[in-house]
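Hi support team,

I submitted a single chain yesterday and got back a structure, but I'm not sure I'm reading the C-alpha coordinate output correctly. Could someone confirm the output below corresponds to the sequence I sent? I've pasted both exactly as they appear in my results page.

Thanks,
R.
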Amino acid sequence: MIAIELHGLELHGFHGVLGEEQRLGQPFLFDVSLDVAEPRADRIEDALDYRDVAACVAEVSGGTSFQLLESLAAAVADELMARFQPARVRVRVRKPEVRLDAPVGFSAVTVERP
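Hi R., thanks for writing in. Yes, this is the structure output for that exact sequence:
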Protein backbone atom coordinates (compact mmCIF):
# COMPACT_ATOMS: atom_id res chain seq x y z
CA MET A 1 0.00 0.00 0.00
CA ILE A 2 1.26 3.50 -0.85
CA ALA A 3 -0.10 6.98 -0.27
CA ILE A 4 -0.65 9.31 -3.20
CA GLU A 5 -0.65 12.90 -1.94
CA LEU A 6 -1.41 16.27 -3.46
CA HIS A 7 -0.88 19.30 -1.23
CA GLY A 8 -1.93 22.86 -1.89
CA LEU A 9 -4.08 22.21 -4.96
CA GLU A 10 -5.47 25.72 -5.45
CA LEU A 11 -8.91 26.08 -7.01
CA HIS A 12 -11.21 29.07 -7.26
CA GLY A 13 -14.59 28.21 -5.77
CA PHE A 14 -17.92 29.81 -4.95
CA HIS A 15 -18.34 28.32 -1.49
CA GLY A 16 -19.32 30.01 1.74
CA VAL A 17 -22.20 31.37 3.76
CA LEU A 18 -21.96 34.98 2.65
CA GLY A 19 -23.56 36.11 -0.60
CA GLU A 20 -20.31 37.81 -1.59
CA GLU A 21 -18.42 34.51 -1.26
CA GLN A 22 -20.94 32.72 -3.46
CA ARG A 23 -21.03 35.52 -6.03
CA LEU A 24 -17.35 36.47 -6.34
CA GLY A 25 -15.69 33.28 -5.18
CA GLN A 26 -12.28 32.90 -3.58
CA PRO A 27 -9.32 30.49 -3.54
CA PHE A 28 -9.51 27.17 -1.74
CA LEU A 29 -6.55 24.91 -1.07
CA PHE A 30 -6.99 21.14 -1.13
CA ASP A 31 -4.68 18.56 0.43
CA VAL A 32 -5.63 15.02 -0.54
CA SER A 33 -4.14 11.66 0.31
CA LEU A 34 -5.26 8.32 -1.12
CA ASP A 35 -3.97 4.92 0.05
CA VAL A 36 -3.76 2.69 -3.02
CA ALA A 37 -2.06 -0.51 -4.14
CA GLU A 38 1.48 -0.19 -5.40
CA PRO A 39 1.80 -0.16 -9.19
CA ARG A 40 2.90 -3.44 -10.75
CA ALA A 41 5.43 -1.70 -12.99
CA ASP A 42 6.98 1.69 -13.61
CA ARG A 43 4.20 2.70 -15.99
CA ILE A 44 1.52 5.37 -15.62
CA GLU A 45 -1.05 2.86 -16.87
CA ASP A 46 -0.42 0.78 -13.73
CA ALA A 47 -0.65 3.70 -11.31
CA LEU A 48 -3.12 6.30 -10.11
CA ASP A 49 -2.50 9.38 -12.26
CA TYR A 50 -2.22 12.55 -10.16
CA ARG A 51 -3.85 14.51 -12.97
CA ASP A 52 -6.98 12.39 -12.61
CA VAL A 53 -7.07 13.05 -8.85
CA ALA A 54 -6.69 16.81 -9.38
CA ALA A 55 -9.38 16.80 -12.07
CA CYS A 56 -11.78 14.93 -9.76
CA VAL A 57 -11.29 17.51 -7.00
CA ALA A 58 -11.82 20.33 -9.50
CA GLU A 59 -15.02 18.75 -10.84
CA VAL A 60 -16.56 18.45 -7.38
CA SER A 61 -15.50 21.93 -6.28
CA GLY A 62 -16.59 23.53 -9.54
CA GLY A 63 -19.82 21.59 -9.88
CA THR A 64 -21.64 22.69 -6.74
CA SER A 65 -21.62 25.68 -4.40
CA PHE A 66 -21.30 24.60 -0.77
CA GLN A 67 -21.98 26.75 2.26
CA LEU A 68 -19.83 24.65 4.60
CA LEU A 69 -16.23 23.54 4.19
CA GLU A 70 -17.36 20.33 5.89
CA SER A 71 -19.79 19.59 3.05
CA LEU A 72 -17.22 20.44 0.38
CA ALA A 73 -14.55 18.20 1.93
CA ALA A 74 -17.03 15.33 2.38
CA ALA A 75 -18.23 15.59 -1.24
CA VAL A 76 -14.64 15.50 -2.52
CA ALA A 77 -13.77 12.53 -0.28
CA ASP A 78 -16.89 10.62 -1.36
CA GLU A 79 -16.19 11.19 -5.07
CA LEU A 80 -12.54 10.17 -4.72
CA MET A 81 -13.66 6.97 -2.96
CA ALA A 82 -16.26 6.23 -5.64
CA ARG A 83 -14.00 6.97 -8.59
CA PHE A 84 -10.67 5.46 -7.52
CA GLN A 85 -11.63 2.93 -4.79
CA PRO A 86 -8.66 3.65 -2.51
CA ALA A 87 -8.35 1.85 0.82
CA ARG A 88 -8.47 5.24 2.53
CA VAL A 89 -8.85 8.87 1.50
CA ARG A 90 -8.15 12.03 3.48
CA VAL A 91 -9.24 15.47 2.25
CA ARG A 92 -8.32 18.75 3.89
CA VAL A 93 -9.84 21.96 2.55
CA ARG A 94 -8.29 25.29 3.55
CA LYS A 95 -9.91 28.67 3.10
CA PRO A 96 -7.03 31.19 3.16
CA GLU A 97 -9.19 34.32 2.80
CA VAL A 98 -11.49 33.58 5.73
CA ARG A 99 -12.89 36.72 7.36
CA LEU A 100 -13.23 36.53 11.13
CA ASP A 101 -13.26 39.16 13.86
CA ALA A 102 -9.66 38.29 14.74
CA PRO A 103 -6.86 37.76 12.18
CA VAL A 104 -6.32 34.13 11.21
CA GLY A 105 -4.13 32.52 8.56
CA PHE A 106 -6.84 30.18 7.26
CA SER A 107 -9.70 27.98 8.30
CA ALA A 108 -9.65 24.26 7.46
CA VAL A 109 -11.68 21.09 7.63
CA THR A 110 -10.42 17.53 7.26
CA VAL A 111 -12.53 14.54 6.27
CA GLU A 112 -11.32 10.96 6.22
CA ARG A 113 -12.97 7.89 4.75
CA PRO A 114 -11.81 4.33 5.47
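A quick pointer for reading it: The longest strand covers residues 2-13. Let us know if anything else looks off.

Best,
Support desk
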